[in-house]
Amino acid sequence: MDSLINVFLKHNPGVTRAQIPAELVTASGSGLDPDLSPAGAQIQVARIAKVRNIPADKISNLVAENTEQPLLGLFGPPKVNVLKLNVALDEMK
Q1: Given phi > 0 = left and psi -120 to 50 = alpha, else beta, which region is 17?
Q2: Order of strands across the sheet with 35-36?
Q3: Mean pLDDT over residues 14-36, rounded?
Q4: What are the tens digits of pLDDT across the range 37-92?
Q5: 3-state helix, strand, coil in the chain (%, to 5)
Q6: Is 68 helix (H, G, I), strand (E, B) or coil?
Q7: Which of 53, 62, 63, 80 is at 20 to 30 A from 69, Cα to Cα?
Q8: For residue 8, is pLDDT > 70?
C-alpha cells in the first residue's frame, strides 16, 4: 500500500499522507469502483484543474453537483459518480 500512497502523493502535491482517503489507495475486489466519496473526489481537484486547465473552483462545483445523497437521506453514504463527473468535465472544454 505504501507504493500506492507514494504515487498518489507524487501526483497530488500539497496533499499530506494523513489527508488521503483510504479508498484512493486500496482496491475493491473487482478493482472497478464507479463511485468515490466526496472527499476522495475533492482531494484530487487541484491535480485535475492543472491537467485539464480548468479553474479549481469550477471543478469543485462539478464535484458538488455530481454528489449523490444517500437514498431517502438514510441509506448509504454520499457518493460521486466518477463517470458522470468525467462526462461533465469533458463537456467543459
Answers
A1: alpha
A2: 35-36, 79-81, 67-68
A3: 82
A4: 999 999 999 999 999 999 999 999 999 999 999 887 778 899 999 999 999 999 98
A5: 55, 10, 40
A6: strand
A7: 53
A8: yes
Alpha carbons within 13 angstroms on the beta-carbon side of residue 18 total 0
> Residue type at 88?
A
With a cut of 80, say whether residue 31 has pLDDT above it: no
Cβ of 47: how many Cβ atoms within 10 Å?
17
Three cell numbers written together for 80: 460521486
Type of residue at 41: A
DSSP β-bridge partners for residue 75: 71
Backbone angles phi, psi at 85, to 5 degrees: -65, -45
